[in-house]
Amino acid sequence: MSARVAVLVSGGGTNLQAILDAAARGELPSAQIALVVSSRADVYALERARNAGVETAVCPRAGRTQAEFEADLEETLRAHGIELIVLAGFMTILSAAFVQRYPERIINVHPSLIPSFCGEGFYGLRVHRAALDYGVKVTGATVHFVNEIPDGGRIIAQKAVDIQTGDTPQTLQRRVMEQAEWVLLPRAVEEVASKMGGKGMKDLFQAAGATTYPGRGIVAGRTADGGKAFFAYFIMGRSANSRNRVFVRDGDGIRTQAFDPAAMKDPSLIIYAPVRWQGGKVVVTNGDQTDTICDFLAAGKSFGDALRTRAFEPDAPNFTPRISLIAEAAGKLAFSMAILKAADDSGARCLRCFYEYEDMPAGEGRFIHTYRCDGNPIPSFEGEPEAVALAGDLDALTEGLWNALDADNRVSLWTMTVDLTTGDRQSRIVNRNA
């Protein structure tokens, strides 16, 4: 699989055309140009996309607040399963909250050699006019990741272009586009997409936010610097009883607890210890099978032995799957994930699936959750745990994951990093019910 790419535009789309031409020449094997989104409906870039057979969408910026515009844009990207965003002549500055949900998954091309002639107010002909006024002899273009600072993200690639005697802002703009922007941008798209594995690997936040109801989810992987293991567990709820919960610390692990004990109607299936440590290994599950696994380990038996005595939850017609993780984080990250789910709609048979990972590359993890999406009954998760990219430290991963989960349904989140050399642990808890 290739990474699904959206190109965001606001005008004629010359940079978009360079990307489309490169794709047509077979130069973007790791990237699928899946969508072109414009902030205006009357631009030629949309015609370029349609001529290339690429789906288009319009998310108007005019007449709306930044929050309204970005909510529309995010929903459009989510609906199309977008994994990488390319700004190509996109004339709207995205908010810090928006870009933080796509860490190093948004790239932009700027018509100068950053850090020269960049930042707020430097766009279009203004950049080239400033270069000529300053008298520099060389300019160029830069492709960079987008962060909360205009033109402030990490640089991916640069290319220099000589300034010639008699240049005007218009002639310089054209030469920078032809010699630098149209060369660099397609290459950068392929470079970033290929580092996503060339297999459509989603960012963790995108994967978690791809549906309004993934249910309960477990994440295990290595942080981007490679030095720490990262774990996460979250719960969501549709009923008042399910939402009446918080995570609280319990020794080295956590447990669920009623936020309002007087309002708790049925504690079965929702009050349990999701995280425990046993024999130097962390066990994370979405139910009381945590205790079963730890008891079996203490008796010298295995993760698989324990789960073969259990089945999915008896909550027909949903038959919520039981998902589980056991991991050891010492020198390297080795872990197993499992899902126990109904083999069919009758709930007469249990399908037990186990996945073992000897280690993870830096910045990569696996994500398993109970449900594919919302529904009635709710469809169970299918296939191998999703490969996801992990970017940022513990606080960034915690904030990004919490923000990615549907605000109406999220209940609680626990995250942890374990230093693979020292064993040092740091954890966070976020509860909807404060």
Textual characterization of the structure:
The protein has 434 residues and is an alpha+beta fold. The protein has two domains: 3-195, 3-Layer(aba) Sandwich (Rossmann fold); 202-431, Inosine monophosphate cyclohydrolase-like (Glutamine Phosphoribosylpyrophosphate, subunit 1, domain 1, 4-Layer Sandwich), CATH 3.60.20. It contains eleven helices and 21 strands. It has helices at residues 14-24, 44-51, 66-79, 96-100, 125-134, 169-195, 204-208, 240-243, 289-298, 303-307, 394-404, and strands at 3-9, 31-38, 55-58, 84-87, 106-110, 138-145, 155-162, 202-203, 217-222, 228-236, 245-250, 253-258, 275-278, 281-285, 322-330, 332-342, 350-357, 364-369, 386-389, 410-419, 425-431. Strands 3-2-1-4-5-6-7 form a seven-stranded mixed beta sheet, sandwiched between helices. α5 crosses α6. The chain is elongated. It starts with a strand and ends with a strand. The mean pLDDT is 92.
Q: How do the strands and helices of this protein lay out in sequence?
A:
Blueprint: E1 3-9, H1 14-24, E2 31-38, H2 44-51, E3 55-58, H3 66-79, E4 84-87, H4 96-100, E5 106-110, H5 125-134, E6 138-145, E7 155-162, H6 169-195, E8 202-203, H7 204-208, E9 217-222, E10 228-236, H8 240-243, E11 245-250, E12 253-258, E13 275-278, E14 281-285, H9 289-298, H10 303-307, E15 322-330, E16 332-342, E17 350-357, E18 364-369, E19 386-389, H11 394-404, E20 410-419, E21 425-431
Parallel strand pairs: 1-2, 1-4, 2-3, 4-5, 8-19
Antiparallel strand pairs: 5-6, 6-7, 9-10, 9-18, 10-20, 11-12, 13-14, 14-15, 15-16, 16-17, 18-19, 20-21
